[in-house]
DNA sequence: GTCTATAAACAGATAGAC
DNA sequence: GTCTATCTGTTTATAGAC
């Protein structure tokens, strides 16, 4: 029996260290020595378990996808809600996603890792797309369709949903810029509520405008 | 007389190479050898002109700020337009910013460099804030105030403007995800027009909702 | 100012003992 | 599976000729 925090042993420790360090400093700025040190493992363990640094990155992306699925799959889809119910569910998703993106601690370092892969166009972007971006987008499109009566897979709806997602993502990616201009020290619960309220108001404005067309 | 593309000589060639390569591959993934090669300069020139790689990054950020100012300062501010005029100017800015962010070639590699500094929380983020983010945000706030009658510096207006900016930024940052889901090969003039139309529609929806409150 | 040559530190990967 | 020790290549930085 070892002192490793994971029963599965060193392998998972290394993956966890990878998600954390790759997310914090980026892939090329992270050395295998740092990874091994943080994981409490030997330098040679990376080559032994994965083959090399690049393959560790892939393993991190896969683990990211697994955890992402677990964190997302607990939301059942209502079959055919009314427009009003669909609007409420959209608002609830906005709140949940913002809590996940902006909250003090999303599970592990998943969000930074995801954003790094996006910024670096890394191999994990494929996983990000499959496990997070695409399912969420489709789910929102379905709800948007119920809320407006439009075809959920029409170009207009898909674009509208992206413009909604963009608002949420930017408040995370542009956090240093937003905080500075707003005079905030960072994102606390109060600030997240304010952002959530703003985006929900935008949602209602967009839905209302759609109905009046 | 040398064959350098810049009359000011090697120094500017290195900065240009830095903006390009740092933007494309990131700071730590770019070696001084690549930089020197692209600039047509010697490896030792970086240490001679700047002191080191890190200082070259700072020089790139400053040059970025200079070019950004030049590219932005050509828009005169109307003194006190009507609500309708303010709305039209907001729409015009949206179109211009999207053309800059999403267009085939913004001037030099300025946009990728900016996004990298944002993603890496690099020292250039300060310059990005001063020369791009803050002036644009304040200008939009002023127009938003004219369009709605609200206090341009109120928290509500500042947040609303960020939610508008976020939509534009995300269509750039999330380009691989958006393109894939939309079934686009990339962003051409037609796609940019579509995005511009969507965000302009959102602008009108938000302004309308504000008026009816 | 620009070059060659090289120093000194660091990277990722591996061989082989245990 | 994990370790130490080391190999090989690359990194940034620098010394000194021109």
Q: Shape of chain A from CA axes?
A: elongated
**Named CATH topology of the domain at 65-212 in chain A:** Tetracycline Repressor, domain 2
Give the termini distance of chain A in whole angstroms: 67 Å
Q: Describe the main β-sheet of chain A briefly.
A: none
CA radius of gyration of chain A is: 20 Å
Number of strands of chain A: 0
Query: Could you give the order of the helices and strands of chain A?
Result: HHHHHHHHHH
Q: Give start-end ranges of low-pLDDT stretches of chain A.
A: none
> Which bin fits the share of residues in helices of chain A?
over 70%
Oligomer: homodimer
Instruction: Write the CATH architecture name of the domain at 65-212 in chain A.
Output: Orthogonal Bundle
Mean pLDDT of chain A: 93
Counting DSSP H or I runs of 4 or more residues, the number of helices of chain A is 10
| CATH class category name of the domain at 65-212 in chain A | Mainly Alpha
Beta-strand percentage range of chain A: under 5%
CATH superfamily of the domain at 65-212 in chain A: Tetracycline Repressor, domain 2
Structural class of chain A: mainly alpha
Short recap of the structure:
Chain A is built from ten helices and no strands.
Defining traits:
Tetracycline Repressor, domain 2; homodimer; 213 residues; elongated; DNA-binding; 74% helix; mainly alpha
Task: Explain this structure.
Two copies of one chain form a homodimer. The mean pLDDT of chain A is 93. With 213 residues, the first copy, chain A, is an all-alpha fold. In chain A, 74% of the residues lie in helices and 0% in strands. The termini of chain A are far apart. Chain A has a domain at 65-212: Tetracycline Repressor, domain 2 (Orthogonal Bundle). Chain A is built from ten helices and no strands. In chain A, α1 (10-25) crosses α4, α5 (83-102) packs antiparallel against α7 (124-148) and α5 packs antiparallel against α10. The interface between A and B is large, with 50 and 50 residues. Chain A binds a DNA duplex (18 and 18 nucleotides) through α3.
């Amino acid at each position: 029996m070892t002192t490793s925090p994971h029963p599965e042993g060193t392998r998972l420790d290394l993956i966890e260290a990878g998600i954390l360090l790759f997310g914090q400093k980026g892939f090329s700025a992270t050395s295998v020595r740092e990874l091994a040190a943080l994981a409490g493992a030997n330098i040679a363990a990376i080559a032994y378990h994965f083959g090399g640094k690049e393959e560790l990155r892939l393993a991190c992306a896969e683990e990211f996808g697994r955890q992402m699925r677990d964190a997302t799959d607990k939301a059942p889809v209502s079959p055919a809600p009314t427009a009003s119910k669909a609007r409420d569910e959209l608002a609830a998703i906005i709140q949940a996603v913002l809590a996940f993106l902006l909250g003090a601690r999303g599970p592990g370092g998943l969000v930074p890792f995801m954003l790094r892969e996006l910024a670096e166009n890394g191999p994990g972007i494929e996983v990000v797309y499959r496990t997070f971006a695409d399912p969420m987008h489709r789910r929102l499109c379905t709800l948007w369709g119920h809320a407006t009566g439009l075809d959920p897979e029409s170009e207009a709806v898909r674009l509208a949903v992206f413009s909604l997602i963009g608002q949420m993502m930017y408040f995370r990616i542009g956090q240093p810029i937003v905080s500075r201009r707003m005079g905030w020290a960072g994102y606390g619960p109060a600030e997240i509520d304010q952002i959530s309220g703003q985006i929900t108001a935008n949602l209602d404005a967009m839905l209302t405008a759609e109905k009046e067309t």
